[in-house]
Amino acid sequence: MKLTIHGYSTALYATWYFIEELGILFDAGDGVCSSLLGKAGKIKHAFISHADRDHLTGLLQFNQLFAGLKPTIYYPKDSGSFPFLKEFFTKFDPHNTGTNWQEIEDKSIIATKNTIQVEAIENGHVVQPGLLKSLSFKVFETKRKLKSEFANLHKDELINIKKERGDGFLTNEIKRNILSYSADTPIDDYDRYHNSEVLIHEATFLTKEETNTKMWKNKHSSLYEVFEMIANINIDKLILGHFSSRYDQYEIDNKIKKHIQQYNIKIPVYRIPIGNTIKNILAQEPIN
Ligand SMILES: [Zn+2]
How many CA atoms lie within 13 A of 20 on its CB side? Predict the structure, then answer.
């Protein structure tokens, strides 16, 4: 499936990614509506990874403008900020009703369309033992494919078999991980995104040493670690974002190119420059 992904992602300020074909928004930092304008009305499912303000402050305007279209906002089950927001929005914009608020758990699977499922996965960004406060997401597409032994049958025969034995007799389910979104997270394991067709991953810091900075209480990834993971798994396209604005874009791009060379990365790599909204990210020139 072709994915038209629009996004903004600069650490501390705002992060959001909108996937047009899926009607899915991942995170809702400032500027979602002012960048997407009427297109924001196509957001049917907003998955918020955690309650850091740079990932949710766009919700107020989204709710005010589009609550009537009955979107659903999903959030990690133990993030108290969301029920509080819901209550506040209800009082602040009492006429804008219709938004559904749904808490989700680790390994929750939400079917957003007949063929599309979103799986939530607990990540290590916010660590509070026993409480679920931060999530990554994987999007799967399932399709039914005709079993090879029936490939030569005539259409009418297939229709008859289907009537008698059901669709499951004729076809196999093919499930593909068409997109994954790390959200804010340290790299916990390499398997998580193996075989994702598109991976959107955060790279707040350039070096691993910087991920230990005391100033940042929640855990993040470094560009170096992301590339080390990418070199060890199979994905088709990589989108990097959530860079810290402490860096110069030139410095970030040079580091990305250096890693691409060093790890002999053959897949296209895209990045969200600091302070920029990128429309249709995958239609841009990759950095390599
Ligand atoms: Zn963030």
Answer: 14
